[in-house]
Amino acid sequence: MTGRRLGSLVAEILVWQVLLSALWLVLISEVEPLEVFAGLGCALLAAVAAVAARRAVSGW
Predict the structure, then answer these.
(1) In tens digits, what is the pLDDT along the chain, a chain of 60 residues?
(2) Where are the chain's structural domains?
(3) Using an 8 Å Cβ cutoff, are 20 and 46 in contact?
(4) Structure pTM?
(5) How many other CB atoms are found less than 10 A from the CB of residue 24?
(6) Are 47 and 16 in contact (CB under 8 A)?
């Protein structure tokens, strides 16, 4: 994997992470540290899955 591809992969995961984390914060009723950390972890897993699925479909 070249540096450019790795950078693109990291940037794509980061964008998904930010969007999903923001959605999580909007949807929870109380913002407590434990819920924020749980949301960040779930958003990271979902971001990796979204990127993997998109790349699998596109034949990367």
Answers:
(1) 677 888 999 999 999 999 999 999 899 888 899 988 998 999 999 999 999 999 999 876
(2) 3-58
(3) yes
(4) 0.80
(5) 17
(6) yes
Q: Letter for the amino acid at 52?
A: A
Tell me the two tokens of residue 30: 């109380």
Of 38, 34, 40, 33, the residue nearest 13 (C-alpha): 40
Strands (DSSP E) along the chain, which ranges?
none
CA angle, corner 31, sides to 40 and 9, nearest 5?
20
- Confidence at residue 30, expressed as pLDDT on a 0 to 100 scale: 84
Rounded distance, CA 53 to CA 25, Å? 24
Q: For the chain, how many helices (H) and strands (E)?
A: 2, 0
